[in-house]
Amino acid sequence: QHYFIQSNLRMHQWALRVQVPDASVSKTLNVSGESTVSEVTLKLVELLGNLRNWSKYALWCTDKRTWLIAPRATLNTYGLDAGNKVIFTTTSKKLSVQLPDRTQLDLEKADFSNTLFSVVCTICRDLRIRHPEELSLLRCAKEEDLKDARNVTARRTFRVRKQNKPKSKKESGAGVSSSNALNAGANGDTLSPHGSLANVTQLTPDEIDHIDIKEGKTMDERAMMNAGWLDSSKSLMEQDVQEGDMLLLRFKYFAFLDLNIQRDEARINALFHQAVRSVLSEDVVPTESECLEFAAYQFAVEQAVRNPPKLARAISPGNDDLDSALADLEVSLGANDPDIEKLNNSVLPNYNRELQADLKFKRPHRIFSFLAKPKMHHFAFRDTTMSFYKDSENPGAPDFIQDLKDCTIVPEVDIKKMKYILHIKPPGAKEYKVLFADKEEFCKWTAACRLASKGKPISDSTYDAEIEIVKTMCNMQEHSQTLKLARNKRPPVKADDIKTEDFVSARIGRKHRPENLGHLILESHNQLPKRETTATEYRLQYILKWERLMDFGMSYFIVKFDKSKKEELLGIARTHMSRFDLSPPHDLLKTWHWTSLQSWNVNWEIKKLTFNVDGDSHTFECHSADIKIVHEYIGGYIFLTLRKESDTELDKEMFYKLTGGWQ
After folding, report:
1. What is the CA radius of gyration of the chain?
2. Alpha-helical segments (H) within 400-529
3. DSSP-based helix, strand, coil % in the chain, nearest 5
4. Ordered DSSP codes for 179-197
5. Is the pTM of this model over 0.85?
6. What number of helices (H) and strands (E) belong to the chain?
7. CA–CA separation, 171 vs 350, rounded Å?
8. For residue 112, what pLDDT is reported?
9. pLDDT score of 292
10. How far apart are CA 437 and CA 445, in angstroms?
């Protein structure tokens, strides 16, 4: 009897009307509640024929706002009947994303059926931004949305549509500069090998004002801004994001793992621009001296972008002496390679090789050595021994002989002063100097002395390679000093040339005249360390200083606790959650650290969150955002605290478990 009941249910069929907007047709299918999604899709594709490739299409229920993408799930599973509206649409749609540096990405194939977290991971992969779990997509806030911080319903529905207008070649991404760390492709086109990203557009200030993206000023407005975060566990389509909308890619969680200059150029650049906006809009409130220091680093970044260090360092960082530079060059040129050494030993050495020249020599003196002047002598070098004669015409017996084995050899070069000096320090004796008139002679003798210090004679087959190493070092020195001279000739930046409103907040700008403020920024910039620093290094210094501010990384929500009669502020940060008075000056009332958090859960029916800390239970409802956003913030920070190593694979299942909740 049970079998016949099930058979009758299967036999009960009804008409499902499916619209296909891209083909401008609609089809009616005879289905039952037990029909699977794959069966319905197959029937529909057979009716549509070969009008186009339907592999990237899926069923979408408009009134239930859900994708029908589980192939084995039945229509009863989704609760569908003949009264539901279903469309057959592509899962990949166009979407505009604005990055923190205000670069606009036009995604040609954003996946509207996958979870938001997966979309963010794809974007970050294409932009070469590590740790996508720190970022998310945010709706753009407009002026009318900031008028009522409690109007959560209106806040969820607003959107910014991408302005469709013809772009020049430069605007379409063909001319994206390599100094922009967020450009993942050399030409700005097709940044992803999967084709998910297309045009890259750097917006002008007028275009940014036209888009009308607003930033919160009061605490109410800042709390309302956090209502714009999209749900990481839902798809874009499920959250009323439509094709052509523009979203903001921002760092949502302020817990940054392993910021590395070599591997995170794009990540550091994006984070730097978000930090600048945070300082200028006073999401954090630094002191005046801190503001000027931030402005100095920001100004240093601009100068480094305009005039980047062009010297490619072939020596290890921190090696200031030429002897260390030569050692690094040996490694880079393979002078110490065992295979090369074996080959060199198989070559017949030149036993007749000898060096002779008239050089200046400065002996070590016990007292007043700095007053002693170098004198000209005739030098000869054979095997590992260097000797000199006072009389070059009648040499006779040498006046001085030095076996250079185990001696310390330190070259000194100053191209500007045409100074080539070789410092020789025998074991247990004082150092003496040999001075050369030109670079060619200096390279030959330095190479011979370096070989001799290692116990190798001048007749060794590696002598010519050693000369090339010394020549390379001299060329590096010459190039470096030429660049320094060129930089010194650049006209200095004047205080009047600084657009101060781009470097300090309005609060600081009101305290000083623009010309005086420009001088203060330049003075603070001049106090920064004087060394060759790239723009990325300056950006990282800015970020590290930003992280040290007292109110760094605090995201606010307007809440009402069950045992409280008035609204309060809830601040969520990377290490704790705090409760503040909503009225200025927003006094701190209570702080709970994540290490003390025992559990938290949400009652989705009444939209209240309950958390337990040290045996005490606290329940609140959120008035400025959906309670799901608060839940996701807490779970996200808990997930970030569980990360240990930077290179471990991202545990997406754990992320969804902690942030997704159950609704």
Report:
1. 35
2. 439-453, 463-488, 506-509, 514-526
3. 35, 25, 40
4. T-TT--SSSSS--STTS--
5. no
6. 18, 25
7. 64
8. 96
9. 93
10. 12
